[in-house]
Design brief:
Two copies of one chain form a homodimer. Chain A has about 300 residues and is of the alpha/beta class. Chain A folds into two domains: about 260 residues, Metallo-beta-lactamase, Chain A; about 40 residues, no CATH class. Chain A contains eleven helices and 18 strands. In chain A, the strands form four sheets. Chain A has a seven-stranded mixed sheet. Chain A has a seven-stranded mixed sheet with strand order 7-8-9-14-15-16-17, with helices on one face. In chain A, strand 11 and strand 12 form a beta hairpin. The radius of gyration of chain A is 22 Å and the shape is globular. The N and C termini of chain A lie close together (about 10 Å).
Chain lengths: ~300, ~300
C-alpha cells in the first residue's frame, strides 16, 4: 500500500532560486491528491514525475497567490491534454467565483467537469469520503480565511488467518464478511465469529497539512496523533514578532503543535527567503519536538506502513 | 553597449520538462525589457540571474495564459521585495481591467505605481520613446488580439575625431553639438561643420518579437531589416493544417517572414510539445532562410554590435 507525500515547493511568498511555492502531492494507494498549487506546480510535477492524470482532487488552503497561482495554468494544461475525467477543487470562498471569472476572461472552455467545493466553517468537517481515505478540513488562523487538511486512511479490512479458511471451508462471501468484522452466520444457525478467523488489520495512516497559520492552542486538537504533520515554519525565533504580526508560525510554534498533538513526525516548510539554510529552523523545532525535519523539493516521505 | 536578448521560455501552451512558456528579456544598455511573462518567469529570472530591479517595462503580446500567467506572481514578488520604482505594462485589452480585478480579488495593495498601457490598433505604433530606444507595437493575426513588438535603438551620437578637438580648441558644449550632428557656429560667425570633426556613428540595432501569429503577407513589412527577428514556430510542415487552423506559424512560415523582411538573423520559438527535438523545425526554416536558429532556455543572444 502506498501512503506517501512528495514535496514540490517549500518557499513562502517569495520563491528563491531553489525553492518553489507551496505544493504537495499525497499518494494514497496510487490516487494522487494535490495540496496547494503555487506558481510553477505543473513544472515541478513534470520534474518530479508526478502523473498528471492521477490527480482528481486539489485542495487549496487559502487564496494567497503563493498557494494558488499554479491553479489557472494547471486547469489550462489539463484542457490541452484532453482531460475528460472530472476534477474536484476544494478551496475557501471566493475561489469558485474567481475561477469562473478567470475562465471567462481567458475564454477557456474546459473539456472536463470542474467542481469547486467551498471549504468553510469554524470546526473540523469531513469533506471527502471515499473507499480508501477520508479528508477533513479545519480552520487555521491567518490574515485571510485559511484551512488545514487532514487525510486519514480508512480502516482496512481485517487480515484472514489462512488456515482457518480451509478449516471452516469459508466461501469468498464469508471471507468478505469476516474481513469487514462481521460474524458469519450459516444456514442452520452455525455462527463463526470473525474474531476466530481474522487478525486485526494494520493501523491506519494519516497526514495533516497546516499552512498558512499563526499558532493557536486549538490547532493541536485537529491533528492529534497523525503519522506525519506538515506545518508551516516561515520564521525562526529571531523573527517571532514578525510571525505574530503576519499570522505565520515560527519553527518552534510548529513543534509545539506537533508536541501537543502527539504526532509521530513533523515536517517543516514555507520558509522565508531570508533563511538560506533551514538548519536554524530545524534546530529550534527539535528543542521542542525531536522528530522534526525540514521539507525539501522533490523528496518523497513514506508515511506509516 | 549592450543590446542582447535572453530567452527564458521556448514552449507553446503546454510546458515540457525542459521548456518553459514564453518570456524574453531584452537588455538595452543595462535597461531590461521583459517581453511576455508565462508561468514560472520569475523562477527563470532567478535561475538565469536576471536582475529584477532593472525591469521597468513589461510587454505582453496577448492574453493567453502561456504568455501572461507569470504576471500576477511577478507583480506580487515586486511588492514583497519593497519595489518603489514605477512599473509599466503594455498589453492588449482587457489586461488593465483583469489586473485591477486580480489585485482586488487577492487584496493586494501595490507599494509601487503600476501603469497598464493598452496596446491596440491595426497599424504600427510608437509606444515608448526614450533616450536609447524606441519601441513599436504592430498587429499580429491570432485567435485573439495579439501584438508584436519592435525595439529599435536610437541613433547614437556621432563619434568625435580626436585630433580635431585640439585643432579647433572645441569646448565641451561644442563637442556636444557636433556629436548631435549640428554645425558649430562661433561668435564672430566662424562655422565649423560637424562633418569636419565627427565620424558617422555605428549602426543602430533592432530586435523584433512576433508571437503568437499565423502567417500573413504584411507581417514582413513591420520587421524589415531588423538585426534579430524572433518568430514563433509552433509547428513543422507536418502540421501546417493545424497551424492554419489555430492561427499559429510553421517554422517555414517564420522563415518566409525573415526572408521577405531581409532580416539578419531568425530565432525560432514557441515550440509545440510534440517536437521533442527542434532539429526538424530548424531544418525546414533554413531551406527558406539559412540564418536560422532554434531558441533555447537560458541562452543570451548578442544583437548587432
Amino acid at each position: 500500500m502506498a501512503f506517501r507525500l512528495t514535496i514540490l515547493g517549500t518557499s513562502s511568498a517569495l520563491p528563491t532560486s531553489d525553492r518553489y511555492p507551496t505544493a504537495h502531492v499525497l499518494n494514497v494507494h496510487e490516487r494522487l491528491f494535490l495540496i496547494d498549487c503555487g506558481e510553477g506546480t505543473q513544472m515541478q510535477m513534470r520534474r518530479w514525475k508526478i502523473r498528471f492524470g492521477k490527480i482528481n482532487h486539489i485542495f487549496i488552503s487559502h487564496l494567497h497567490g503563493d498557494h494558488f497561482f499554479g491553479v489557472y495554468p494547471l486547469l489550462s494544461t489539463y484542457n490541452l491534454m484532453g482531460r475528460k475525467t472530472p476534477l474536484h477543487l476544494y478551496a475557501p470562498a471566493p475561489a469558485e467565483a474567481m475561477i469562473a471569472r478567470h475562465l471567462a476572461d481567458f475564454d477557456i472552455n474546459l473539456g472536463y467537469e470542474l467542481t469547486v467545493h467551498t471549504v468553510a466553517g469554524r470546526s473540523m468537517k469531513s469533506i471527502l469520503d471515499d473507499r480508501r481515505v477520508e479528508v477533513f478540513s479545519f480552520p487555521l488562523k491567518h490574515r485571510i480565511p485559511s484551512y488545514g487538511y487532514l487525510f486519514r486512511e480508512k480502516t482496512p479490512d481485517r487480515n484472514m488467518i489462512r488456515e482457518k479458511i480451509e478449516e471452516f471451508g469459508l466461501t469468498v462471501e464469508e471471507i468478505g464478511m469476516a474481513r469487514k468484522g462481521k460474524d458469519i452466520i450459516r444456514e442452520g444457525g452455525e455462527i463463526i465469529p470473525f474474531i476466530d478467523v481474522t487478525l486485526v488489520p494494520r493501523q491506519t495512516v494519516s497526514y495533516a497539512f497546516c499552512s498558512d497559520t499563526g499558532w493557536f492552542r486549538k490547532l493541536s486538537s485537529y491533528v492529534t496523533g497523525v503519522d506525519l504533520l506538515y506545518h508551516e515554519a516561515t520564521f525562526g525565533d529571531d523573527n517571532e514578532a514578525l510571525a505574530l504580526k503576519t499570522r505565520h508560525s515560527t519553527a518552534r510554534h510548529a513543534a509545539t503543535v506537533a508536541h501537543d498533538a502527539g504526532v509521530k513526525r513533523l515536517l517543516l516548510g514555507h520558509f522565508s527567503a531570508r533563511y538560506r539554510s533551514t538548519a536554524q529552523l530545524e534546530e529550534e523545532a527539535r528543542q521542542v519536538f525531536p522528530e522534526t525535519e525540514a521539507a525539501r523539493e522533490g523528496i518523497t516521505y513514506e508515511i506509516g506502513g
